[in-house]
Amino acid sequence: MADQLTRARLGGLGRRLAGAVFVLWAVATVTFFAVRMIPGDPAEAILGGPGSQTSPEALAAVRAEYGLDQPLLLQYLHQLGRLATGDLGQSYALNMDVGPLVVSQLGGTLVLALLSLTVAWLIALLLATWSTGRGRLARQIGSGLEIVAAALPHFWLATTLIVVFSIWWGVLPPISTADARGLVLPVVTLAIPLAGFLGQVMRESLTAALESPFVLSARARGESERGVLWRHALRHAALPAIGLSGWAFGSLISGAVVVETIFARPGLGRTLLNAVTVRDVPVVIGVVMIVALVYILMTVLTDLASRLADPRPTTSGTGAGA
Amino acid sequence: MSELEIQVAAGVDTAGGAKTAGRGRVTAVEVIAGLLAALLIIAAIAPRLLAPGDPLAIDPRAAFGAPSWTHWFGTDESGRDIYTRVVDGAHDSLLIGLTATVIGLGLGAILGVIAGTLGAAVDFTVNRFLEVLFAFPGLLLALLFILVFGPGPGSAIVAVGLSTAPGYARIIRAQLIRVRSSAFVEAATVQGLSRRRILTRHILPNTLAPLLVLGTLGVGQAIVWAAALSYLGLGAQPPAAEWGAMLSAGRTYITSAWWMSFFPGLFIVLTAVCATALGRSIERRMRHA
Amino acid sequence: MTPADQLTTGRPRPEVALTVQNLRVGFGAPSAEDAVRGVSFEVRAGECLAIVGESGSGKSVTARSILGLAGAGARVRADELTLAGESVLGLTEPAWRRRRGRDVGLVLQDALASLDPLRPIHREIGDSLRLHTRLDATERSRRVLEVLDAVGLPDPHLYAGRRSGELSGGQRQRALIAAALVLDPPLLVADEPTTALDVTVQAQVLTLLQRVRSEGTAIVLISHDLAVVSRIADRIVVMHDGRIVETGTTAEVLGNGRHSETRRMLAAVPVDKPRGARLAPATETRPAGPALVADRPAVPADPRNRATPAVPLVAPAAPPATPGAGLALEAVGLSKTFRGPHGTIHQAVDNVSFRLQRGSTLGIVGESGSGKTTTARLALALTAADAGEVRLLNEPWSTLPERDRRARRPLMGAVYQDVLASFDPRLNVREILQQAVTGPASAGRARGRRSSAARRGEAARVGSLLDEVGLASGLLERRPADLSGGQRQRVGIARALASRPQVLICDEPVSALDVSVQAQVLDLLDELQRELSLSLLFISHDLGVIQHVSDEVAVMHDGRIVETGTAAEVFTAPAHPYTRALLAAVPRLI
Question: Which Pfam family, just one, is annotated for this protein (chain B) (predicted)?
């Protein structure tokens, strides 16, 4: 029996890995062919766009250098081969390898995203625990705050925070400096909307848990309200929010595009936006591949965390990606 | 997961909380959200009713005016009235949001129904396809689309529609599978109804009934995302009175004229909150209908 | 003295465990009528008092008020409420908390949900010790194992670390009782403690409760089931509409119940009532029925010989058949396996064969997991069997491709347990019945092309179906969600009859209903069977129901039929040990 379970678990892990590899391959394929649909000659783009008067010889040289003169299928296979070895090619605009560029930008974004995720969790937990079991008014206030928070666009929240905390009060820097104070506004900007989403889910499961028979049993044992909350209900409330953390991480990276731009903070998001603006195709592909990789890793980690927190056998997957 | 799936999942609680509110009673939140929605729609259709001025009227002497009795929301760098421009921008912003939602919902519904009805192989394929799309989280898919097709309002609409489609598709597929395996579909089989008839009379109507709720909940998100693209300079461009573009234009003057970016953004938030509140309320009413 | 011998700790007990005088409990607006209106009773040490009533009678609210857990919005008033010798009227919440668990324990119905599914049971049980004693961790865990041993959980060391989801139904219920008893409270409140359990497990739990009582613990047992409480209760209180309508010793109430509600509940218990005997007063079966129904004798002397109505309500599709006139349904060697979550294979149905004679009822009885529902689905040809065949009216049925079977589907109707889920939530009663009447006949036709005469005919047929099942035509425009449980099941039966079937598959059709409503539905099915010469495959976990409705009985266990025979044979002279165990466990009115 135990042996069978282990085998089933290993099988599940194997399936997950295969799924992750498949998604990465598909992401690479989608981006490769999508990028080929860009109108215009890529060689021209490399040499500074269609307007720049380039000689046919220079174009030919660039085509040969980037392998653009080969058949599309061959280019695709080359691209896959390079990706498999971790080679992301050369940036058109920055004249450097994409791999090291993307990796150097990854750290800043990861720090930002992880901090924001933590802060969002704290806010959501505090709001959900404060507003449940205190009557209808508190519940409606809490629920209303969550809906508003979830609707806040990063770009507006960021500018509003800058106006209040940097321009009016002058307590926090408007651009993200290297020290901890420079991180406060970007993290808060990313955390508040996310807390709105997490809080909605937590409140739902918290309410369900508090009305469940096992909480009635605990109360009948003489358990206090605080004991009911901490020993029973909060764990149940946290479960779905843990399951959401993979998604949350993805949405944080997406939000980093805006936040890093506004706070002039180096990172993947800003790199991506610049690359999209100047059509630096290899950098876009590089960032997308890294984000997909991190996202898949996060969903796997989330799944593991969910399983640790809830050892009950699940009937289906969490549905969060591969 | 997508923002929408969370909103849908969380809506269940609101319905539970509404048990005490009673079925038909109109709550204060619904009244406020309804009024707001009416005002936004009036602003989008007939902006002159709410703001009689000219959104493009330049008055250099009144440039960078703070909010006052003559200019409720202040003025911009050319002395244009922000209130008038915000009201005027409702048209573009709502239209972009609605169109993107229709595209996303349409694509999502097609994918979801195809996955749920055409057999296990198709379901598997569509599911893998959705998984791949989910690996471009949030705006990334939209950015990729804009990279290929270039920036602009049209691009932004399709990009946002495309990035919301996977979320819709998964919700609709899940709903369809739930309906397909429900006891009443089995009861219809026992009655001897043909598969086609069960599909058209029972499965599809019950699957697609929540589309209105999904769409209403999704419009807010679509407006926020489209505005984000405009803000980043990839959607509607600054002379336009679209809210995201106005915010983007106000960015330069953030130190001296905060109102230029504050009020357009406030309306994005209000619209999104309004859409969520209305979506929840429709859901609750449909559940109790 | 080993721990297993003794549940209690020898804690001194007050002679009177609980006194309730004129308890009133209200919810919502102060003007709203109270849910409990002036209830008084007393429970002594070592006594079991049962509070019996149907849903909505106020019995559960009464039970929860004893623990101060009637709910946040409840207004609880009483002249006296004394628990373990101390008045608990108007106690503050912290004072209540000190008493809960120590002076009174609570056992709820659904042990799976009543124990935190994320925590191992030893923690759940140890919580009471942590809250009310100063024992350290080792002493606590010793006491937990002791009490688990005492409630008869085998191998407590092994099971203490498991979560409720990893235990069987019986183990779980024992763990829940252990959690309530760990501090040895003088009073145990048990709210429907055996309701969701299989009959054999139910018997074990009742035996355990009996032991608890015999060691001096007072028990308040809440139940809807008179037969269950008759096994262990010393005294019975019958509640109806928030009031106590009858109270007395168990023998008095069961043998000589005076109040109409008591008699109604007693009459509705199907066990040991012969086939065809009415369970509910005649007026209740078809309350809104046509004159034809009222013309019949209310209680026929011998229902078997009762004449069919002079004018049949519905012309049967086939000439009326008499029992023995051939086979309605025949199953030969049915097998079905399912794949479990970890690649395990579960044999749900194993070589099952049965024969349903025309115009008779075959009852299939079994506990949960015995494969009876899978058998029903195989009979309905909703799942394909791995092996074996089902034949309908001596013609192929399960072997046909669905396309060909569709034309014959009208011959077979189905009545479900969760009837609400079997209705499309978008349709009202009229639409549900209309669709059933039209059936597959119009499959090829466009909706608008039906002639107005055909449509009038359909409307008339919908009306006569409602009459048949005793529903008022005023319900036509309502949705099933707005109907009561009994009304819904009548609509479900009407839908099943719409195509004038010859065979009806009933899968637990009355299990979700209150006992008096159950009685009405069983009576209705019985009448319809005779009027329409229906053949019934009746599936239930409830031996009493099966004994009452069946001509022949098949007992299922672990996917196999272990015994078949006429109802009389199986119930009076069971051959298989499993059947004997099952019958021994059935709660009967003493």
Answer: BPD_transp_1
Q: Which candidate from C113, C117, C343 shows the least CB-CB separation from A8? A: C343
Q: Do A291 and B137 touch (CB under 8 A)?
A: yes
Sign of CA dihedral C141, C147, C151, C156: positive
DSSP state of A313: P
State the total domains in chain B: 1
Nearest to B246 by CA among B257, C528, A190: B257
Adjacent-strand bridge partners of C362: C537, C552
At B60, list the tokens. 């250099």
Rounded Cα–Cα distance for residues C145 and C106 (Å): 20
Dist. CA A27–CA A321, nearest whole Å: 13
Question: Under an 8 A CB cutoff, do C118 and A310 touch?
Answer: yes
- Determine whether the interchain pair A35/B147 forms a contact, defined as Cβ–Cβ distance below 8 Å: yes
Partner residue facing B131 (CB), from A34, A201, A321: A321
- pLDDT for res A49: 59
Burial of A156 (0-12, 13-18, 19+ CB in 10 A): buried
B135 CB neighbours in chain A (<8 A) are 23-24, 26-27, 291-292, 295-296, 321-322
The reply to whether B182 touches chain C by the CB within 8 Å rule is yes
For A62-119, the pLDDT digits (tens) are 777 777 777 888 888 888 888 888 787 778 777 788 888 888 889 889 999 999 999 9
In chain A, residues with a C-beta closer than 8 Å to the C-beta of B232 are: 155, 257-258, 261, 273
Give the CATH number, domain containing residue B29: 1.10.3720.10
Question: Residues in chain C with pLDDT < 50?
Answer: 1-4, 288-324, 443-446
All domains in chain A, ordered by first residue: 20-84 (no CATH), 98-321 (1.10.3720.10)
Query: What ipTM was predicted for this assembly?
Result: 0.85
Domain boundaries, chain C: 16-103+187-201+218-268, 111-184, 327-423+500-585
Q: How many CB atoms lie within 10 A of CB C492?
A: 27
Pick the CATH number of C327-423+500-585 from 2.60.40.10, 3.30.420.40, 3.30.1490.20, 3.40.50.300: 3.40.50.300
CB pairs under 8 A between B and C: 56
Q: Are A46 and A52 in contact (CB under 8 A)?
A: no
Provide φ and ψ at C92, rounded to 5°.
-75, 165
Q: Render pLDDT for A155-169 as a digit per residue (tens, 0 to 9).
A: 899 999 999 988 888
Minimum CA–CA partner of C97 in chain A: A222
C-alpha atoms less than 13 angstroms from C-alpha of C228 in its C-beta half-sphere: 29
Measured between beta carbons, the chain B residues lying within 8 angstroms of A295 are 135, 137
Which of A30, A153, A249 shows the shortest C-beta gap to B224?
A153
What is the CATH architecture of C16-103+187-201+218-268? Answer: 3-Layer(aba) Sandwich (3.40)
Q: Is B109 exposed, middle or buried (0-12, 13-18, 19+ CB in 10 A)?
A: buried
Pairwise CA distance, residues B202 & B196, whole Å:
10
**Candidates C64, C342, C346, partner chain A, best to mutate (most A CBs within 10 A):** C342
| Residue B105 reports pLDDT greater than 80 | yes
